[in-house]
Amino acid sequence: MRFVYHPLAKEPTLKIEGESYIHLYRSRRIKSTSRLELRNLKDGFLYTYEHAEIAKKHALLRLVGAQVLEVIPSKKTHLILSVIEIKSIEKILPFLNQLGVSRLSLFYADFSQHNEKIDSAKLERFQKILIHSCEQCGRSALMELEAFSNTKEVLKAYPNASVLDFNGETLPASANFEKGIIIGPEGGFSEQERGYFKEREIYRIPLDMVLKSESACVFVASIAQV
């Protein structure tokens, strides 16, 4: 763990309780003489705290230092992924976060699994996964998450996004996806959706194998940082 997340990190005093307390003081057995480094994942600062008290169910911390220490990817990558199984999204989130994806937009394509619902509770769970990933890899800013109801909505929101499909040009090794790249579901895009893409750049992955949506996400995120 590179740091501990706390939404109020930067305040003169902090209270650690709940899951964070259990992890730090029961699992990791942090001692009162130890100093902790915390982030709020908003301002790029790394805050150093010392212990004022460790009680049975909470700990009190006192701020003793702060430094600007941003750990962010050199390139911004925006992935626009059609909704797949929730468990598959949860599985790839840490990888995308570690690979420097700046934003993940989820949308319902025609062939998406519409029984998989992306609501506020799901987005909150996704964010918790990303927070744990940041604590492990050291990233100092959260990947942004958002959801759209259908393909038309996401195309309107991102008019310059490119598309990953089977019949496009070979994906260049030095591609820039700051404006977004749209990745379809397991069944691909419908003919109606392909009609929407006529004025957009269309790429394909330079492999003879057909990748699952989550594998395509990780592949694109990887080459985007090259």
TrEMBL record:
It catalyses: uridine(1498) in 16S rRNA + S-adenosyl-L-methionine = N(3)-methyluridine(1498) in 16S rRNA + S-adenosyl-L-homocysteine + H(+). The keyword Magnesium does not apply. It is found in: Cytoplasm. GO terms for cellular component: cytoplasm. Residues 76-225 form the Ribosomal RNA small subunit methyltransferase E methyltransferase domain. Its EC number is 2.1.1.193. It holds the Pfam family Methyltrans_RNA. One of its GO terms (biological process) is rRNA base methylation. It is an enzyme of class 2 (transferase). Keywords: Cytoplasm, Methyltransferase, rRNA processing, S-adenosyl-L-methionine, Transferase. CDD domains: RsmE-like. Residues 16-63 form the Ribosomal RNA small subunit methyltransferase E PUA-like domain. The keyword Cytoplasm applies. GO terms for molecular function: rRNA (uridine-N3-)-methyltransferase activity. Belongs to the RNA methyltransferase RsmE family. Specifically methylates the N3 position of the uracil ring of uridine 1498 (m3U1498) in 16S rRNA. Acts on the fully assembled 30S ribosomal subunit. This is Ribosomal RNA small subunit methyltransferase E. It comes from Helicobacter pylori Hp P-4.
